[in-house]
Design goal:
- This protein is an alpha+beta fold.
- It folds into 2 domains: 33-160, PurM-like, N-terminal domain (60s Ribosomal Protein L30, Chain: A, 2-Layer Sandwich); 174-316, Alpha-Beta Complex (Phosphoribosyl-aminoimidazole Synthetase, Chain A, domain 2), CATH 3.90.650.10.
- The protein is built from 10 helices and 12 strands.
- A 6-stranded mixed sheet has the order 1-2-3-6-4-5, covered by helices on one side. A 6-stranded mixed sheet has the order 8-10-7-11-9-12.
- The longest helix has 18 residues, at 112-129.
- The protein is globular and about 50 Å long.
Length: 317
């Protein structure tokens, strides 16, 4: 049995410490930004205004320690899919159409088979998103990585068309959830610590390596006001990023099915509910804020926007 009360911080990832560090450097970052920067640090994508009235949306991210699971299972193609879809979802939250993607692959010694699988995954996901894999960097750094280890990061740029502006979010708007198929690309340091010693059989490998889903087609299909990509920090950490001041997101936890892998992690690690909801996506990869009149008939309604009456920006009931 694992230790009681395992947490993301105990597993080596302290999101609160990162947020404190980010607050310290925000003035340095802001000093580099001119009037063309429409949105900097904070949203899911940075926005850079063009003279035409269009805006470029850009984001960068990584796959995290999910890579360690892929290495243990000898399955790497899905990691390439993960990094592209993660970045695509981030800029989709700004209403952007993906233009091009770049990758950064680093390892101690290049394994052509592993590298080939990663590129296969990235190119497949890029084709699906309609964006070009424009290039990247492949770095061999002996002594930096243990034998067989590697890291993968992605960088994406998309276009927000002129005149693409969202209506203001207000109390009474509906929260529509887009289901996930598992952990996507976040929370693996905690998941790996909890599941340490559990044989990585075919079933567990499939659960842990289920690819990060792309929600680009959903965001094109639904008329939405705000979108939150549920990544590191979970629903409670990411949903407030698309909300204006003065409102709270109220979610009904019984409205959707949570994938079984999360219950395995919670029970084996004796992870608290607050830690689970503040670390994992818990079955929702994206949450959209939608005007009641624009909610599709088949939509998964998971809550509503209400007037803020306390300090919490997300309330789970």
């Amino acid at each position: 049995m694992s230790q009681e009360g395992l947490s993301y911080a105990a597993a080596g990832v302290d999101i609160e410490a990162y947020e404190r560090a980010l607050e310290r450097v925000k003035p340095l970052i802001a000093a580099t930004q001119g009037k063309e920067v429409a949105a900097g640090v904070g949203p899911f994508a940075g926005l850079y205004a063009l003279p035409s009235g269009a805006r470029l949306a850009a984001s960068a991210d990584g796959v995290g320690t999910k890579i360690k699971v892929a290495i243990a299972a000898g399955m790497h193609r899905g990691i390439g899919v993960d990094i592209v879809n993660h970045c695509v979802n981030d800029i989709a939250c700004a209403g952007a159409r993906p233009l091009f993607f770049l990758d950064y692959f680093a390892t101690g010694k290049l394994d052509p088979e592993v590298f080939g699988q990663l590129v296969e995954g990235m190119t497949a996901a890029c084709r699906e998103a309609g964006c070009a894999l424009l290039g990247g960097e492949t770095a061999e750094m002996p002594g930096m990585y243990a034998l067989g280890d590697y890291d993968l990061a992605g960088f994406i740029v998309g276009l927000v068309e002129p005149g693409d502006h969202r209506a203001k979010i207000k109390a009474g708007d509906v929260l529509v959830g887009l289901p996930s198929n598992g952990l996507h690309t976040n929370g693996y340091s905690l998941a790996r610590k909890v599941l340490d010693g559990v044989p990585l059989d075919g079933t567990l490998a499939r659960e842990l390596l289920a690819p990060h889903m792309s929600y680009l087609s959903d965001l094109r299909r639904i008329r939405w006001k705000g979108a939150a990509h549920i990544t590191g920090g979970g629903i409670t950490g990411n949903l407030p990023r698309c909300l204006p001041e003065g409102v709270t997101a109220q979610l009904d936890k019984s409205a959707w099915e949570v994938p079984a892998i999360f219950d395995k992690i919670r029970k084996r690690g004796r992870v608290s509910d607050d830690e689970m909801w503040g670390t994992f996506n818990m079955g929702l990869g994206m949450v959209l804020v939608v005007d009641p009149k624009d909610v599709p008939e088949v939509a998964l309604t998971v809550g509503e926007v209400v007037h803020q009456s306390g300090p919490d920006r997300v309330v789970l009931i």
